[in-house]
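ok so i was messing around last nite and threw this chain in just to see what happens. nothing serious, just curious
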Amino acid sequence: MKKTGKPLIGVLYTGRPLVLTQVEALFDSLLLVWYPGTMGGIGIANLLSGQASPTAKLAMTFPRSEGQIPLYSAQLPTGRPLTDSEHSDRFLSKYRDESNEPLFSFGTGLSYSSFTGEWLGSEVFSETIQLAYRVKNQSATAAETVIQLYLMQRPAAMVRPSRQLIASDLISFAPQEEKERRLSLPLSELVFYDNQGKKHITKGTYRFLMRIDQKETMLSVTI
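result:
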């Protein structure tokens, strides 16, 4: 069927991440429906026919091959970086026969629309951080999208995940509509726990990463 040149969409039923490297190459797009239940057929038909637009994002990472496992979003940074031009190859973390990148990362999810976003700024208060951003629906199709906000802190008093999901924002758009949003984030979201189970918030620079579709933009905030 692939050789006919017709666009092919694969509908994937599964309850867990799978290695889909060979399967993905056979299709122009994949629709992951998990185990949708008795009304799943209607929902799938609405998505495939364009009556509804996909909105969901992956809650798990899908690897390219079994050899990459364990593979997840909130991994700790390593002393052997994935890429670093200042070091010779023997000090880098990589595979000889495979990419370091997953096939589909945590938070991946496409839509029939296209969105762009930009940071507008931030304000730090005694108990909260106010994050402001603007998002625009670039297409002529009404749709929803999920804005993902990740926290990054390097250097830190203790090793923290390379990126940590701290908030999400589901927004509905009319065609070509633009919206400005403000998110009030409690400072408690910046907490980390030491080896004794005690929680800490350290002063310093925190980086917030906004992910829309497959695009990412960074904002630095000093506490």
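not much to say yet. The two ends are 56 Å apart (CA to CA).
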